[in-house]
Amino acid sequence: MTHTRYAFIKAGWHSDIVDQALVGFQQVIPADSIDVFDVPGAFEMPLAAKNLAQTGKYAAIAAAALVVDGGIYRHDFVAQAVVSGLMQAGLETDVPVLSVSLTPHHFQETDHHTKIYREHFVLKGREAAEAALKIGSFRRQVNA
Question: Is 74 marked active-site?
Answer without folding.
Answer: yes
